[in-house]
Specification:
Elements: H1 2-9, H2 13-26, H3 33-42, H4 49-54, H5 59-83, H6 85-104, H7 108-125, H8 128-140, H9 147-181, H10 188-198, H11 209-226, H12 233-245, H13 253-269, H14 273-286, H15 289-309, H16 313-323, H17 328-340, H18 344-351, H19 358-365, H20 367-383, H21 390-401, H22 407-425, H23 433-442, H24 453-467, H25 471-479
């Protein structure tokens, strides 16, 4: 049920309309229950759905109906893919097959013409595997042409074989690293470099749009786990330079906009907030309607963060409030923004709306998201003087997360919890020079450019206590020291 609902909600309004027409066309009856269920889920109505369909609970019938609807939707998406991106690759393969049949029928002129057309399309889309099929067919019948033609095809096929091999190496590295990153390794950036070296993976102009996106995705995932975006920035910029040199972006829009999003994310995490907003504006102006439902939640998240850390907290709160009901990310951001504005009770009330288990949120949002949620919860308890709840919360965080996070995160978490505990036990201690020295010694700061944005945000809470400042002011002084206004 959750997978089916999530799939339907991922479709845009126009895609939902197309899917409904697709399902209705294949139904034998106009009042089929799969359409009724589809309409209910499109409207987000999941309560008492079995009673609405059958008049009473009927688990087996409902399970069968849900499976049928899910199969209908997978069929719809498969047919839709053939109408768009996959259609071009199918055209190439059909032309290759047609060329082979024409050779068998000794229609050589038409056969070469079909292969030439297939080659032109395949090169335009970087279909390296399809090009292998084309060159193999050309080699099979190269004896019908002159020596210069054979020489040219030998060169093209050899070059293309290297491209296919590079593509395979990237897929191997991608699969290997994605699998290892799931366990939140202790040194993700080092693991990233070791994996790239192991598969002899180097950026080149032969990378396709998809390959460049996967490469950039690996970099940013490793950076997210380590908090070290600074180290991967030169490589990200090098990868994106190849994107700018490529043509036919309109044929690869999904990967193109994914890479633009990753670039905006890297700018945010490197505290280049104006650049982040500029990229987001460019995406918003060019993003096709069919991709908006997929991209909008994460674009809104970046936009809210960029505005908040630029000093435009009112706009950040407006964005988060507008979309919090449909996004757990934005709801947690709204908690954070309210907390930074000293709206403690409002923030705590919002936080209590997260009713599902940490295991659920970890599966859906990732470990670090859950750690942030729990740390914000701890700070809110301290601000609300719920002293009876704080020791258990600190013990729980240590027990649940210390072994899971990587080594640098573990040390930061340990030090932060120790200092937060000291503050809650004796708030006046924050005013002493000894406490200030302990805070400064506890964190191995890498400098403004290299330090993680979110780690700085939590440190800002300690800074606000030491200097007796508003939390938001202390935050901006750390993350945006040369360009903010309150």
């Amino acid at each position: 049920m959750k997978a089916l609902f999530s799939l339907i909600q991922s479709l845009s309004v126009s895609e939902q309309e197309e899917a409904r027409a697709f399902i209705a066309k294949r139904n034998r009856r106009g009042d089929a229950k799969n359409l009724i269920l589809f309409d209910q889920l499109c409207q987000g109505q999941t309560d008492h759905i079995q009673q609405k369909l059958y008049g009473s609970k009927s688990r087996n019938a409902y399970h069968a109906l849900s499976k049928r609807l899910q199969d209908n939707l997978i069929g719809f998406l498969a047919s839709k893919s053939f109408e768009t991106e996959a259609n071009d690759e199918m055209r190439v393969l059909k032309l290759v097959l047609a060329g082979r049949l024409l050779f068998e029928k000794e229609q050589e002129k038409l056969a070469w013409k079909a292969l030439k057309k297939a080659e032109t399309i395949a090169k335009g889309f970087d279909f390296y595997t399809a090009l292998q099929e084309i060159y193999q067919t050309q080699l099979q019948y190269a004896h019908l042409k002159n020596a210069d033609f054979l020489k040219q095809v030998l060169l093209l096929s050899t070059t293309n074989t290297k491209k296919v091999q590079n593509e395979l190496h990237l897929q191997q590295a991608y699969a290997s690293l994605k699998h290892q990153l799931k366990s939140n390794p202790k040194k993700p950036i080092q693991l990233l470099q070791e994996t790239l070296n192991r598969f002899d993976l180097k950026l080149s102009e032969n990378f396709t749009y998809k390959s460049l996106y996967q490469f950039m995705e690996l970099l940013t995932e490793a950076a997210a786990l380590s908090g070290d975006y600074y180290s991967i920035t030169p490589t990200i910029e090098e990868a994106y330079a190849y994107v700018k040199e490529k043509s036919n972006a309109e044929k690869h829009l999904y990967y193109y906009f994914q890479m633009r999003y990753l670039l905006a994310d890297v700018n945010l995490r490197n505290k280049n907030f104006a650049s982040c907003i500029e990229i987001l504006n460019e995406i918003d102006n060019a993003l096709p309607e069919k991709y908006k439902k997929l991209f909008n939640p994460k674009l809104k998240t970046l936009r809210a963060l960029a505005f908040n850390y630029s000093g435009e907290y009112k706009e950040a709160i407006r964005i988060a409030e507008e979309h919090a009901a449909n996004s757990e990310n934005l709801k947690l951001l709204l908690v954070t923004f309210r907390f930074q504005q000293s709206e403690i009770r409002e923030a705590y009330g919002l936080l209590k709306e997260f009713q599902k288990s940490d295991q659920y949120y970890e599966r859906k949002q990732g470990l670090l998201w859950v750690v942030k949620k729990e740390l914000i919860g701890l700070l809110l308890l301290i601000e609300l003087d719920k002293l009876d709840l704080i020791p258990n919360r600190i013990t729980s965080i240590k027990k649940r997360f210390s072994a899971k996070v990587n080594s640098s995160q573990e040390e930061q978490l340990r030090q932060f919890l120790k200092l937060a505990s000291a503050y809650y036990e004796n708030p006046k201690e924050a005013e002493t020079s000894d406490f200030k020295s302990r805070v400064e010694l506890a964190f191995n700061w890498l400098g403004f450019e290299r330090e993680d944005l979110f780690a700085m945000s939590f440190y800002a809470w300690l800074k606000s206590k030491i200097e007796n400042k508003l939390l938001y002011k202390a935050t901006l002084e750390l993350v945006n020291p040369t360009n903010y206004s309150l």
